[in-house]
Design a protein that fits this description.
The chain is built from 6 helices and 12 strands. 51% of the residues lie in helices and 21% in strands. The protein is of the alpha+beta class and 423 residues long.
Length: 423
């Protein structure tokens, strides 16, 4: 559901970006076409002014009889006529209407002027005087057949055609960028929420021992120091809670170092059976009623950091004692997991597991057992001692060894935690 929502947001952002880009490109296209149009008009104006000046100079020097021999661009038409009588003195286009722009470049459009087309010209006129008569020199060019003008007409359509692939590419790119940005934002949000929860949990964990220490200290200050029994009880409580706080702080520092990759992994070779035997000896010395069964049929040799692996198993076994009791039965197992490649089985990872005969995990909490400060309920009940950081530490340590850790309920009952590491 969240994935579909993220996809919808990415598509929406991509469409918005594409719309903004399309609007910007259309605006730029119109500005570009408008600038070209001005450029073409100014070019036409310059040509018309040059031709009109050339004709006026010829009339002044040689008269109108020499006008048929004046060299003009082939696309320029001219007419010289008397201002008052409109008597045409010379022209190279008899169909050119007599116009007067009063020295300014203008455009004239007359629909169906010709039998098969419209009149669409840009023209310029200039008034001069010969033998006391006012003469008007008119020059014009047909802008309907002008190449530059035709190009200006096709440019908007060409821009639209070119705009389509650009918009398509921009949509794909913006979708990919927005998708990665949303993912990064979601990750940052998740990190922020996790750190916020982490801070809240730390405050919650430290609040109780601080309150107990403060309470007993005040008790001793008021009257308890004179009561030997209460004095002994308060000192024991203060020491116990101080030890709990020290354990929490130490564990948090260990996790911080793990997450920053500051813990060095020192690999050595040792046998799983010997490793399990040491764990059995350590825990039975503390809890004589614990029962251990060691399964290592292949007498597997491990190549990893023994100290960190020992820390992982100490956490797991301590949890078994905590939840299954001091009389719990533990099965320590080592076996090789196999992988199939092309139908052929080959040695893969080493799987080390701890199974107890307790009540196991509630199915609802299984996905959360490796989370920080998780103790199986939302209230962090202190009836079961511990900070809720043990399995989170075990997970981080396992990952530092390049392995993975999983928790589930054993088929015959009890908790089963397995660790897979490469050898």
């Amino acid at each position: 559901m969240r994935k579909n929502k993220n996809k919808a947001v990415s598509v929406s952002l991509a469409f918005r970006f594409m719309a903004i880009l399309a609007f910007a490109m259309l605006c730029l296209s119109f500005i570009f076409v408008f600038a070209l149009r001005l450029l073409v008009i100014n070019h036409h104006k310059s040509e018309l002014e040059t031709c009109v000046s050339h004709i006026v100079r010829t009339i002044s020097l040689e008269g109108t009889q020499e006008l048929p021999f004046v060299e003009l661009p082939y696309y320029i038409t001219y007419t010289v006529y008397e201002s008052e009588s409109e008597n045409v003195l010379s022209t190279n286009d008899s169909l050119l209407p007599l116009l007067n722009s009063s020295g300014k470049t203008k455009t004239c459009f007359v629909k169906d002027f010709f039998t098969d087309s419209d009149l669409n010209i840009r023209y310029l006129t200039k008034e001069t005087e010969i033998s006391g008569k006012k003469i008007i020199v008119e020059c014009a060019l047909d802008i309907s057949n002008d190449t530059a003008t035709k190009m200006l007409k096709t440019l908007p359509y060409l821009a639209l055609i070119l705009l389509l692939p650009v918009l398509l590419v921009s949509f794909v790119l913006s979708y990919m960028i927005s998708k990665s940005t949303i993912s990064a934002f979601k990750k940052l949000q998740a990190d922020y929420d996790r750190e916020k929860e982490f801070t809240s949990n730390v405050s919650h964990e430290l609040k109780t021992p601080i309150a107990i220490i403060s309470g007993h200290a005040n008790l001793l200050k008021r009257w308890g120091k004179n009561d030997p029994i209460q004095l002994e009880k308060s000192i024991d409580s203060i020491l116990k809670e101080s030890e709990n706080m020290n354990h929490i702080v130490t564990t948090l520092l260990d996790m911080s170092r793990l997450e920053r990759g500051k813990i060095e992994v020192v690999k050595t070779k040792f046998f799983a059976t010997n490793f399990f035997a040491k764990l059995k000896e350590e825990f039975t010395s503390l809890y004589p009623q614990m029962k251990f069964e060691i399964i290592d049929e292949d007498f597997i040799e491990l190549y990893t950091d023994e100290q960190k692996l020992h820390q992982i198993f100490t956490v797991i076994l301590s949890n078994s004692v905590k939840f299954a009791g001091e009389k719990c039965r533990i099965i320590l197992c080592a076996k090789r997991s196999t992988v199939k490649t092309g139908g052929v089985k080959s040695g893969g990872q080493i799987e080390l597991s701890v199974q107890d005969n307790g009540t196991g995990f509630d199915e609802k909490i299984l996905p959360h057992v490796f989370e920080r400060f998780f103790k199986g309920d939302s209230s962090h009940d202190r009836n079961v001692s511990g900070s809720g950081l043990g399995l989170a530490i075990a997970k981080s340590l396992t990952e530092s060894l390049g392995g993975s850790i999983k928790a589930k309920n054993a088929p015959q009952g009890g908790a089963l935690i397995s660790i897979a590491i490469s050898n």
